[in-house]
Amino acid sequence: MCVGTCARTLGPVLLILGLLSIIANLFLLFPSWKSHYLNMGQIAKRAMVMPGLWGGGLLVFPAAIQITSIGWNWSCCSSSGNCQKMFLSIVLSGLALLGSAACFIISGVGLTEGPFCLYVFTTSQGKRKEWGYPFIDTGAKNYLYDPSLWKSVCIEPQNIVAWNVYFFSALLIISVVEMILAALLILNSCFGCFCGFSKKK
């Protein structure tokens, strides 16, 4: 393994994934490209927690920037020894791993719960419309395996079920890749700390 080459590759990839995570989470806040649902607080609570912003994004960026700077041997990182650099990379990569894991868990819960939307609720007095989580409140079967429910349950926002599925799924995929890369960065940093920093000339 060449520690420098690995750092130059994984760092920028992690930066891109962190940015994509933030973008995917922001899309969840604006269903159907409309902002008034956010203003009225009619957004799923797991999206409002914004795991893609802080978990998959902000906690990932320090590790990505630091390991990239090591890989490209930036002057701002040349004042300390290689072992100190690698130890810092281990700590920051650990934070990135925790952040991406938190993003994965929260996004998984959000995907399981389904969207927050306006739907028809049947009571003993008849039918009425209300805002809530229809796939939890009504005890409906798992909507993820029945796309026919995606357009028949939620009245508003338009296409909110598909919107919810696509972007929470994107966060899940991104966070899984981030976890793998963060784990590789930890191993790479340990290798660099104990075996020395090397890069191809």
Reported for the largest beta sheet, the result is: 3 strands, antiparallel
Mean pLDDT over the residues:
85
Biggest β-sheet: strands ordered side by side in the sheet: 2-1-3
How many β strands by DSSP? 3
Oligomer category: single chain
Poorly predicted runs are 75-80, 197-201
Q: What form results from the Cα inertia axes?
A: elongated
* Beta-strand fraction estimate: 5-15%
- Taking all Cα atoms into account, the compactness measure Rg is 21 Å
Number of helices: 8
H and E string = HHHHHHEEHEH
Q: Helical proportion? A: 55-70%
GO cellular component, one term: filopodium
Family: Belongs to the L6 tetraspanin family.
Membrane topology: Multi-pass membrane protein
Transmembrane segments: 12-33, 53-74, 86-111, 166-197
Spell out the blueprint of helices and strands.
Elements: H1 3-28, H2 36-39, H3 45-48, H4 51-58, H5 61-71, H6 82-113, E1 117-123, E2 126-132, H7 134-137, E3 154-156, H8 160-195
Antiparallel strand pairs: 1-2, 1-3
GO biological process, one term: positive regulation of osteoclast differentiation
Transmembrane segments: 12-33, 53-74, 86-111, 166-197
InterPro entries: L6_membrane (IPR008661)
Note down, in words, how this protein is organized.
It is a multi-pass membrane protein. With 201 residues, this protein is mainly alpha-helical. It has one domain (3-115, 158-195). 62% of the residues lie in helices and 8% in strands. The protein is built from eight helices and three strands; from the N terminus they run ααααααββαβα. It has helices spanning 3-28, 36-39, 45-48, 51-58, 61-71, 82-113, 134-137, 160-195, and strands at 117-123, 126-132, 154-156. It has a three-stranded antiparallel beta sheet with strand order 2-1-3, with no helix packed on it. α1 packs antiparallel against α5 and α5 runs antiparallel to α6 (82-113). It starts with a helix and ends in a 6-residue tail after the last helix.
